Amino acid sequence: MPSWYPKGYFVQNTYFDFFNYAGLHRPVLLYTTPTTYIDDITVTTGVDQDTGLVDYQIFVQGSEHFQLEVYLLDEEGKVVAQGTGSQGRLQVPNVHLWWPYLMHEHPAYLYSLEVRLTAQMAAGPVSDFYTLPVGIRTVAVTERQFLINGKPFYFHGVNKHEDADIRGKGFDWPLLVKDFNLLRWLGANAFRTSHYPYAEEVMQLCDRYGIVVIDESPGVGIMLVQSYSNVSLQHHLEVMGELVRRDKNHPSVVMWSVANEPTSFLKPAAYYFKTLIAHTKALDPSRPVTFVTNSNYEADLGAPYVDVICVNSYYSWYHDYGHMEVIQLQLATEFENWYRTYQKPIIQSEYGAETIAGFHQDPPLMFSEEYQKGLLEQYHLVLDQKRKEYVVGELIWNFADFMTDQSPQRVVGNRKGIFTRQRQPKAAAFLLRERYWKLANETGHHRSAAKSQCLENSPFAL
Question: d(Cα 258, Cα 195) in Å, to the nearest integer?
Fold first, then answer.
């Protein structure tokens, strides 16, 4: 009704469930380069028995006449391999592999790739220097497993948001350190960058802490038929190019996610995701590619092209309200349908329930801490069955409460966090901590819980 609003009035509608903050979210750095400089480095790694392989390609701007020296240093600063030229392979004997947190007693081992450029210009000699942290590891996917360094890896972690109650989406070092300490306390070994690329500092800490990352593009809110137009597709291809270029050298990044909960049952989605995923694989053949779906297994037209099926579900939350007794049947049936159709490993990429911290009800009622805990327990019963077969991960929604647009369904934001927006634990956090440490202990790779929680591999260690 036009008379309800003043002339010229409008609001921006978004098709995603997090607050659309404005402004500059992250530090802006201005820097200068020499006239001839190192513009980009691409590193891919492999392993041949106990020898690490580091393939490098260096891109130089400003001149075609230059010399490059390349050195790989271990954590003690000792040169373990060296080469020359803009591309080559370094061989590292007795390699220290980059392992995820809790998968090895010495996780997150990082070498340093030092690149030194010299060029003779008309005005005199020019030099440039760059150091890139390098983690040597491999990633592979089979019909039933996700492998890191040839060993089965099970994702037990979280989904996050760049969000807090003081700075909003703005980058905040103390908050970031707090979050990583909570991840380690929780026994989490992974998270997804839902639903956009996170700050580069986050990725750098993941490399150093051994936290595995599913790196997601800002492909969220792909809902309308026009969202699949050629213009949208071209933009999405460019966005994936930017994301891969930025994050390709992070050992913590083990998989690309091109989108979250698109309407992948619409007819144009088939060509869209086939093209998008093929493009991403061409940009980076070393990592699997996925998108996160909440479509029906029979209707999803993008699923044939992914390497890992990532499924979001909210049984007994968005339907069958309060009836947790149906979760096991519904979840097991969904897993079985997906696997029978595609024979690909599956990650439960989102599940959870909204909880107002301090709300208690017995018997459990929605929004109480008991309901969130009970719902998770029902999911875990099925996950424990299916992880023996083809389920390779579980990521809770969400790590912490976060702000959204206002609506009758959101009580000052989304309350599905296992921590409050101020990073205080709800009952579910303790449930997940017990589960995640149990899952980690089953692998038997790490020395002890106490040692695993220390910050010896952290840049903040004293």
Answer: 10
Contact 110, 133 (CB under 8 A): yes
Q: Whole-angstrom Cα distance, residue 274 to residue 304? A: 8
Mean pLDDT over all residues of the chain?
A: 94
Say whether 261 is catalytic.
yes
Question: Of these residues, 69, 105, 200, 261, which one is catalytic?
Answer: 261
Q: Which residue has the tokens 């647009």?
A: 405
444 pLDDT tier (thresholds 50, 70, 90)? low
Token pair recorded at residue 87: 């591309």
3-state secondary structure of 206: helix
* b (16+ CB within 10 A) / e for 280-316: bbebbeebbbbbbbbbebeebbbbebbbbbbbbbbbb
Query: Which two structure tokens, joined as six digits, stand for 181?
Result: 């300490």
CA 46 to mean position of chain CA atoms: 21
With pLDDT > 70 as the criterion, what percentage of the chain qualifies?
95
Nearest alpha carbon to residue 416 among 346, 348, 366: 366
